[in-house]
Each structure stands twice: as C-alpha cells, then as structure tokens.
Specification:
Length: 102
C-alpha cells in the first residue's frame, strides 16, 4: 500500500464535547441539518443513527407518515442539543471486545 497524506476536517462535537472528524456533508437540508453539519461529528451522527433505529422500532414508526418524521426530528434535536444531551466528560466509546481464547 502506498503512503499518502489525508486531511480531515474536525468539529468540536456538541454531543461528545471533543474535537472529532466532521461530517462530510449536511445529513439533510434545512436549519437543523446545517446545525448538525456544523456542530456534530461523524461519531456523534453514528450514535444518532443507532438511536433512531431504536426509536423507529420501539414506536413502530412508519417513515412515510409525516408525523413520524416530525417526531423523529424532534427527538434528533433533543438528542444532540437538548438539556443534558452532552455525554459525560469521562465517557469513552466502547471498544471492540477482544476475541476469546478457547
């Protein structure tokens, strides 16, 4: 493999309270999409994707229903920017478990 330099854009992630890799583009149009693009990292966005799957499955949301989309957008804003949304300072992402030896 050839050696090469790669530059990344970083953002101070509002969710994780640290400088991390920024999203490459807005996740969707509009004011909230722009705010997420400017203030949320790739890792923070991946956390939301997991959370949104949980919400969709738990509530049985039909994403063709505009009310379901509205609900999900409200939850997204709360997840990233609501009171108490920031992860604790001592939080660290889970690491992959080491394979067990048999």
């Amino acid at each position: 493999m050839a050696r090469y330099e790669k530059t990344i854009t970083v953002v101070h992630c509002a969710k994780l309270n640290r400088e991390l890799e920024a999203l490459p583009r807005r996740p969707f149009p509009g004011e909230l999409g722009e705010r997420i693009y400017n203030e949320i990292s790739v890792q923070g966005w991946e956390m939301w994707q997991q959370q949104s799957t949980i919400l969709i499955n738990h509530y049985g949301l039909n994403m063709a229903d505009p009310r379901a989309n509205e609900f999900l957008f409200e939850q997204m804003e709360e997840f990233f920017f609501g009171e108490g949304a920031q992860m604790p300072e001592d939080w660290s992402p889970p690491t992959a478990a080491a394979p067990s030896k048999k």
